[in-house]
């Protein structure tokens, strides 16, 4: 199987799609999130990330995350957060968000909330709640 395209389909939301010969293989969306008490800090979230089950473990999720992180950098973010399988994200250089004193209400499984600094020491000494847009709660994410 070869990956045919990874593209940003919506510059506003930073929606990334991975398409193959058979159609859509995976998706990740980039959203601005707020760090309570630090409105000047630009943080982005990668969520949701999904790859069709039959196409998992072929590097598609990894490529989507790499593409989305590049997009976050272009949008001026200093850090990126994600909620998901810690093993997957730590393999890509993310660290448990608690390492930076960050938490969110999406962290149902201990260690599943992770962060990646795009700028050195961007999160150093901050800490606090990362607040996702209301849309996430409305959708039950």
Describe this structure in words.
The protein is an alpha+beta fold and 141 residues long. It has one domain (30-138): Gcn5-related N-acetyltransferase (GNAT) (Aminopeptidase, 3-Layer(aba) Sandwich), CATH 3.40.630.30. 18% of the residues lie in helices and 37% in strands. It has three helices and nine strands, in the order ββββαβαββββα. Strands 1, 2, 3, 4, 5, 6, 7, 8 and 9 form a nine-stranded mixed beta sheet that branches. A hairpin with a 2-residue loop joins β2 (15-20) and β3. The protein is globular. Mean pLDDT is 84; it is low at 1-12.
Question: What's the helix and strand layout?
Answer:
Elements: E1 5-10, E2 15-20, E3 23-35, E4 43-51, H1 60-74, E5 79-83, H2 86-91, E6 95-96, E7 102-103, E8 113-117, E9 128-131, H3 134-138
Parallel strand pairs: 4-5, 7-9
Antiparallel strand pairs: 1-2, 2-3, 3-4, 3-9, 5-8, 6-8
